[in-house]
Amino acid sequence: MTLALATGLSACASMPQKTPPPSNPAPTSVETPTSTPETLTAQRAGRLAATGHNLEAAKDYIRAAAEARGQTQVHYLMEAAQASLKGHKPQVAILLANEVLRLQHDDAALRSAALWVRAQGFMDQGQTPSAKGNLEELLAISGTPQEVRAQAMGTLATLYTQEGHELTALNFLIEGDSLLSGRDIAENHRRIRALLDSQPTAKLQNWQGRSGNPLVQEWLAVALITRQNPDPQQRQAAISAWLTAHPGHPLINFSDHRAAITDTSTPNPALGSICALLPSSGPYALLSQAITAGMKTAAQLQSGPAVRALRTTGNPSYTAVLFKRGIKEGCRAFVGPWLPQDINAVAAVRKPSDPPIIALGVVPGVQQSGLYTLSLSRDVAAQQIAVQSYGAGYRRAYVLYPQDSSGAAIQADFIATWRKLGGEVGGVATYLPGHTFTDEARQLLSGSPGQDSFVFLVTNAKNANAAVSSIRLVNKRVPIFSPALLHGAALPSDTRGLSGIESVDMPWIINSGQSWPQAVQLLRTTLPNASDAQWRMAAFGLDTYRMAERVLDKDMTSSLAGATGILHFVTHNQIIRDMEWMEVENGRIVPLPGVPKPGT
């Protein structure tokens, strides 16, 4: 939908590549030549933008604006703002959009385009209150194109949901429904149902009395009917009676699922789709949302099969039911389940002729034709460090990990793999993040580790500086390998203490704008306030979608240079992710072709 918005903005706010002559010129005026300097500069900017050189295009548009006057100048500034946003310079985009708004008072479409760019720039900088203000002002402009208005409402719904103002979000989603068509309506209905499903019954009843929008009240009434009537026939009869008593409800049908309401224009919403079978509750809910957002972004950019979310509840039996229902409704492939109990449940009911699955975890003993596995766990990075460093010639590891359950699990996976390979563990110690190393941890490194030794450090971006600095106070030279250093969306603000650390993680996290810049732009709209963990999972969504496409194409031989690393199929239908090695040198990421050799 964001691509449709970009097209809409381009149509509304793009400038002519030649300066147009006045529609009714005075007799004494001289026609502007078509080769004026600003036109040539703008034409070059257009070519640069078309080939993805957005920052260079922005500079040329600014030069063209400086040489032009009037409305043409404003259009050039608008193009420069849009190119700056695409080039990941939100602050510049905001300044240029400000200038457009200062100069332009009559062209409603151009003002709405500038407000949209400014809102995107604010979201990129994490300034969501300012972004909301711009989006709401954009909605107040009568000349805002319909597709831009719909996208703004959807974005506002996301922002208000994240702030806990779900009723306001629901209003935006339902008000925007009339602006949509086709698949966009189906996706909007899915969002409405998901928001309603996540609320307790008492809150929905309270909302009925608070909302002044008849359509919102009707959606709430139908959601409550589905909860009060577990029997499918009784529920259908109750809904039909309610619709008869309340004419004018949106044209939607109600299936036998408790809250499955689907658009009449798509009788089988899953037909031909890649379906995400992921948890919708508990600690996995927001992570599942990010995976699904990544999948939908990949579908949009690849122009591939649509993505439909099938939300599990933590009940394995219900997960199996959703899987069979997805097959009946036309899912061509599934990404998920994720949780071990759900993988077991689906594997138990799946037939060899059923659509393929990419499960997001590995369950011992579960192997089937057409069932592929890709683990999202950071434990995999720990295992890979063990395999690759042993292959590079290292033989002894010193293990440091924080005193929490996650750190304990990661180091245990590392040690198990390391010892299985024949590696020696020189010692293991815990530390408390943010505190001075314990005597045990200092003694661990106080000797003189040999050239074939390294420290396996479990940490995260927030605590990495302190941990690395503490190690360097005891030992200046020992290599430090960490599976979790860069699991977040960015390096810590102070990276001076990280110099010399080598780490393994995904290229998306190192430089997502370089890995797949178009995906970054779309995902920052869909997930404007994504946590580090969500941003990481969105990258997995991008890659699992493309791997599902390969499964459908029966292409199991070639590798995929994805956002999370190099992915390829191996024996037993496993998908392995080869993560990249890098080092932090003077606060900069330096990619490495492989593991640094011992003694280097």
Word description of this protein:
The chain is an alpha/beta fold and 600 residues long. Helix 3 runs antiparallel to helix 4. It contains 23 helices and 17 strands. The protein has a 7-stranded mixed sheet with strand order 9-8-10-11-12-16-17, sandwiched between helices. A 5-stranded parallel sheet has the order 4-3-5-6-7, with helices on both faces. It starts with a helix and ends in an 8-residue tail after the last strand. The N terminus is likely disordered. The longest helix is centred in the C-terminal third of the chain and has 21 residues.
Distance between the termini: 50 Å
Determine the mean pLDDT.
79
Q: Give the overall form.
A: globular
By DSSP (H or I, 4+ residues per run), the number of helices equals 23
Keywords: Membrane
Organism: Acidithiobacillus ferriphilus
Protein name: Penicillin-binding protein activator
Region (Disordered): 10-38
Structural features:
single chain, alpha/beta, 7-stranded mixed beta sheet, 5-stranded parallel beta sheet, 23 helices, disordered N terminus, LpoA, membrane, Peripla_BP_I, Penicillin-binding protein activator
Quick summary:
With 600 residues, the protein is an alpha/beta fold. Helix content is 52%, strand content 13%. It has a seven-stranded mixed sheet with strand order 9-8-10-11-12-16-17, sandwiched between helices.
Secondary structure blueprint with pairings:
Blueprint: H1 2-13, H2 37-50, H3 54-67, H4 70-86, H5 90-103, H6 108-124, H7 128-140, H8 146-162, H9 166-175, H10 183-197, H11 201-210, H12 214-228, H13 232-245, E1 252-254, E2 261-263, E3 274-279, H14 285-302, E4 307-312, H15 316-328, E5 333-335, H16 340-349, E6 357-359, E7 371-373, H17 379-392, E8 396-402, H18 405-421, E9 424-431, H19 439-445, E10 453-457, H20 461-474, E11 480-482, E12 501-505, H21 507-515, H22 517-526, H23 532-552, E13 560-562, E14 565-569, E15 575-578, E16 580-585, E17 588-592
Helix pairs in contact: 2-3, 3-4, 4-5, 4-6, 5-6, 6-7, 7-8, 8-9, 9-10, 11-12, 12-13, 14-22, 14-23, 15-16, 17-18, 21-22
